[in-house]
Protein 1
Amino acid sequence: MSESTNSETQSEQARVCLTPEQVDAIRDAATDTGAKYLRARNETIIALLADTGLRNEVLTQLTTEMYLRDAGELYLPTNIQKQPGNGRDDWPRSHHLDLDVDGTIGTQRSLNTYLDNRWKDSSYLFPSRQSDQMTTRSVRNVVKRLAHEADIQPFRYDESGEFGRGDPDDVHPHVFRHSLAYRLLHDRDRDDNHFDIYFVRNRLRHASLQTTLRKYDHFRTI
């Protein structure tokens, strides 16, 4: 492999992730801090990011109708998903995404509690104080504030292959996507080896397995 190709591959690798315990600490901060009427919303945002690995720009476009409560699924239409940069015209496809895939997050419980007691009636799943739809910047700000409230030091993977620790400023919505991959690839309590790299690829809705391998293959050995 050429030096330039190796550099490109390294630059695509996920560098920051959270442990399940750190995700729980951020959720606790969401339920304990901030405006009381926003706490359930913020906790549900964290739960949904941790469970599904949704991109921020998709999360903010979710509507209440896309949550299929009885089925325990999210419906993700094509038009809200990230478009591929490789010229493919058959991806992304509309997708039904199961919630609580490994039984550790309780996303449905958070969603149901939040929606049953929501302070604002909006067609979008996550409204803000000022609008019926949160912006991606608002979500980033919520995540950053909660990471600081919980004093999170995420794990950082550097170019030398060593793990270190970061600080709350390293935590942003996309880190939960990386953390989902790490959690699933390290789920060693199952006997069926269900959560392999192929499962992660489908869960994160990558158009190509190669994308998943470039970003997360190193997670399998750390």
Protein 2
Amino acid sequence: MNYTENYKGVKIDVQSPNLDVSESVQAEIRASIDKLSRFTSNINALDVYFKAEGQGGTATTTIGMRVGVPGPDVFAEEKGENWIGMLKSVTDKNIRQLQKDK
């Protein structure tokens, strides 16, 4: 499932091959933008990549998030099992990068 959305002037591009992104995960992506906006007002785009590999006990899930800002973009990735928890983690990692670049 891939989808694009415009939220508060920020273009959201979500790529999740072979996975459906639930409404609660989409709401968390929007909440991530709200949280990131507190640290920079210049967000142009947010790209989120969901990836699941393997099956059963060897399955791994990964989220990557790229925040498009003037200058170099910031990117963070997280592996785990809970999509919403991983989204919060990559959001916090990107915030730390934005703060460091100030």
Protein 3
Amino acid sequence: MLNEESLTDSLKRRLKDLKRRKNIKNYYLKKIKGGKSYNAVLLDSLIIKFIMTLLFFIVLISKTGYFILSLIISLLFLFSVLYASYYIKAKKFNKKVIEINKDIVNRKIMKEINYFTNDEFIQYVREIFEKYYNISFDEYKENIDLVGKKYDEVWAIKCFKTSQEDRISKKDIRDFKDEVDEIGIERGIVVTNSYFVSGMKTEYEGIIELVDFDSLVYMVKEIGEYPSKEDVEEIIISRYEENKKDISKRKGHVFSKTKVFKYLFLSFCLFILSTMTIYSFYYMIMAFISLSLAIVSVFYEYFQKLIFKETEEE
């Protein structure tokens, strides 16, 4: 009995994991294929290969006249095409997945930073720089947010938290540089969660170190705080669950208890009209559709209550 239960639990876990993997792959494919689902992409691919194989078989049998031989060669052709297609698509898919994961992580980090106050962003930068450079930084004042020392060299950091659309201007850098030069600090660093005006990195190379959002993400990765593949998959699954809830809500607006009588009344009216007009067949179809919606609404409401009851018991 125990073995049977453990086998059932193992099977359930396996099926759950397979479903999870399919949902993740479905998410990636929708991103890559412009909204097409996993099943749609798979079906399209199989149909195209089947048509190719069928045409190949027709040409082969017309040339040779041997049905069995043509069938065997055609099946070998199909398996070869499937294997080659899978290998090529797998490479492209994995490359795209890396890009999508990068975008997901970047958006996650952006979202986290957007919730920070200016002081919180300064502390965020401080923690990253202390781990990345192995230096202890202290808060400063005015145009300098943080100062630290390494090998008798004083470092100064200025943080700019802004929107992703804004760019840090030359004036912002110049004000910071003037302050650094006045105090006599050896190394100045400007950090932003956005980007700098075009050409500024080249202009200030060797004078002021400019750290934009991409450089900040790189540092996060280097200190080991970059979200893992498993973290990204959890984000994808959570998005899938949110979308599922939204779809369920939209279904609820169509299939609800309040709509049952409306659908029945509409069905009755359409049926009466079908006996009075020349388009009787059209009205009969619409009456049948309205009646079907009423029946579905009744079952939907029942299952919703059943699911809610099971959730409460759990």
